[in-house]
Amino acid sequence: xxxxxxxxxxxxxxxxxxxxxxxxxxxxxxxxxxxxxxxxxxxxxxxxxxxxxxxxxxxxxxxxxxxxxxxxxxxxxxxxxxxxxxxxxxxxxxxxxxxxxxxxxxxxxxxxxxxxxxxxxxxxxxxxxxxxxxxxxxxxxxxxxxxxxxxxxxxxxxxxxxxxxxxxxxxxxxxxxxxxxxxxxxxxxxxxxxxxxxxxxxxxxxxxxxxxxxxxxxxxxxxxxxxxxxxxxxxxxxxxxxxxxxxxxxxxxxxxxxxxxxxxxxxxxxxxxxxxxxxxxxxxxxxxxxxxxxxxxxxxxxxxxxxxxxxxxxxxxxxxxxxxxxxxxxxxxxxxxxxxxxxxxxxxxxxxxxxxxxxxxxxxxxxxxxxxxxxxxxxxx
Length: 381
Description:
- With 381 residues, this protein is of the alpha+beta class.
- Helices cover 48% and strands 7% of the residues.
- It is built from 13 helices and seven strands.
- The chain has helices at 12-17, 46-50, 58-62, 70-76, 93-118, 156-160, 174-179, 186-207, 228-251, 260-275, 287-304, 307-333, 341-354, and strands at 8-10, 19-20, 23-28, 31-34, 80-84, 212-214, 220-222.
- The strands form two sheets. It has a five-stranded mixed β-sheet with strand order 1-5-4-3-2. Strands 6-7 form a two-stranded antiparallel ribbon.
- Strand 6 (212-214) and strand 7 form a beta hairpin.
- Helix 8 packs antiparallel against helix 12 (307-333).
């Protein structure tokens, strides 16, 4: 709800009634929050929040088992809907309802005024979010953000790592804006046919028995078809290292505060994802941008190794990339079973977004975080 709007008041009985997946409310002290939209995204799973619906989360937020970060607390405030009137009894219910009706009328008038100022389409997702104080934020959310963030300078790093539950508009031009968005299913649609075709081509080529590794001009080693699965997995393993390096050294570079262009570049590459981590249209790579990395990966392997061997490793790496993008999307929007591998990955990745932005760079695996000393530390109480 808007910070300028008078708070609505609810009785304990009213709050307790909202304990389903279609309407889930929680308390933090006397503050009431509607967290229905966050159920699927919660790293602990939907069932965990629903089991605490209508209850006070003050002790839960402090932990154990998990102490929620300042960003997590700030995120919760986006779902604030009103206050709990603990002293209200049966005689006061009618008074509360009258008070709530007056508050709702005030909200409607405020919404109409905002609608006229913003001049946006009434069905736009940007109007459905009230998670950002439009008057106090460092950027103007009514305008495209791409050309604004560079002006934040030394304030950019802190601002971009304070996530909001709101879609981002990067460009005013509708074609440029559309080019930055990709539905998750385009990743397997575009890349898996290439994986299957090249995988079959490499295997059948090796099956012909003509592929050899020349050690000297007089000595070479034949490469049988049974080596293909090994080369495939080597390529996949190599991708996990590339994934880690891109995430750590490119996506999480810290642009100089005085450099407008590097700040803008960082925001376009990855900063916008940290600012709005649940913007579903920007959780996977657009195929056009990904093709640059894929092409460089292919050329590097084929220049370093014999063509068939390089292609075999490339297929494994490309498959690893597809799995990476699918897992990344699932970590944001999926609800993995508690105790599973993906459950632990989701919790790990959410910590990276909300608390440990300078560590926890592994997505499909935390393996490379260990030798490079970027593992997210365990919490201590």
